[in-house]
User: Which sequence fits this backbone?
């Protein structure tokens, strides 16, 4: 199972050190998501991450920073994806700063939305799969994606206790947020989840 870590949307103590340590300990893919945050704050965050790890980072906002920092790719929020779907026949060709090596992903909240999407994403988040850890009242829907050919990543309530369940539901990876950033020791929790993903 692939493991993706999403940044905390709010600032957390020692966040930069923790992110660098996650990379040092084998994190392959990190999504930088800081909603309603300025480009300058994004830049400051990226400059604080060891540049050798920049190729493992995906941006949720301020996509124009992609090439400046040599990042992995971009992630589209649902509203932005729908807007692009209406106006572009060729998605990558329509965004000038994207190159073939860059990844493109997006967020979905129903299986029907995935099936009806005309953009061929490298992977897609589907949520909420389980009850959210980071958002109160965000109830998991346990979507079964076994029949979906596209690479689908489970998001929402992912912890060391339900990764095997996500695998049985057909997911090819998991994205974690609350189970990492709402703990006293993010690195320790990451290692537990990482080991389970490797063996699943």
Assistant:
């Amino acid at each position: 199972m692939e493991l993706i870590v999403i940044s905390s949307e709010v600032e957390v103590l020692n966040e930069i050190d923790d992110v660098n340590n996650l990379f040092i300990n084998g994190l392959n893919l990190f999504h930088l998501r800081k909603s309603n945050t300025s480009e300058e704050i994004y830049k400051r965050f990226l400059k604080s991450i060891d540049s050798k790890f920049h190729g493992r980072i995906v941006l949720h906002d301020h996509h124009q920073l992609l090439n400046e920092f040599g990042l992995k790719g971009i992630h589209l929020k649902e509203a932005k994806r729908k807007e692009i779907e209406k106006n572009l026949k060729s998605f990558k060709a329509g965004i000038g700063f994207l190159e073939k090596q860059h990844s493109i992903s997006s967020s979905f909240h129903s299986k029907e939305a995935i099936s009806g999407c005309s953009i061929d994403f490298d992977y897609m988040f589907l949520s909420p799969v389980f009850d959210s850890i980071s958002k109160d009242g965000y109830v998991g829907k346990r979507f079964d994606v076994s029949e979906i050919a596209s690479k689908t990543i489970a998001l929402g309530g992912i912890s060391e206790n339900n990764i095997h369940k996500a695998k049985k539901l057909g997911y090819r990876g998991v994205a974690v947020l609350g189970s990492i950033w709402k703990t006293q020791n993010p690195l320790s929790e990451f290692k537990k989840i990482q080991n389970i993903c490797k063996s699943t």
